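User: Show me an example of a complex going from sequences to structure tokens.

Assistant: Sure. Here are the input components:
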Amino acid sequence: MPAGRHKSRTLRRVSRKTPGAKTTLQYKKRKPSKAKCGMCGAVLSGVPRERPKKMQNISKTKKRPERPFGGVLCPKCMRKIIKESIRE
Amino acid sequence: MIEIGRLCVKLAGRDAGKKCVIADVLDKNFVLIDGETRRRKCNIRHLEPLKDMIKIKKGAASSEISAEFKKLGIEVKETKKKEKAEKPKKLRGKDKKPSEEKPKKEKKKADKKEKPAEKKEAPKKETKKEEPKKK
């Protein structure tokens, strides 16, 4: 039987092989939700989905696309904003 | 709208939002651009044409274009060309320093010869000693 604190699904379950060739259940924290566009809410590509401690070790250029508003807006919304700023 | 000398704003990629000029029309879909952006081939769909025009020749050099941009009050960053670093030369024969490498090799060989006799006893003891430290 799992321990009482492991019965709820707040932690995700990962089965791992031990060095002795047995499989054990490990309990790990869940990943944060996917990054979304600030204007339209579309899921952003090119933004990794990791816990903050792991995000520290990823380089800045791997955490977001290298364009203005990269990692904040989707490319469609970014184009809209640029076009609007030109036409004013 | 798409013609040589037309000022545009780039909409896609890392140069998005920067101004450029069409230096050449290559194709139905593609043009050569230069200016604040890198000098590169670009799809028309990735450009937003502006009202203004600049007088330049077909395929004008980037130095001419940057001069025209300065007249408009847009500053173009000048990129420096990277100078090639010299390759490190391998020293051989007489030029090689004799003192650095020779003594190391002698040591390794000496260790290997000594080890096999002790191996059967020694490693077991070491592993047992190491485990409790980790815990």
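The lines above are the inputs; the final block is the predicted structure for all two components together. The two ends of chain B are 73 Å apart (CA to CA).
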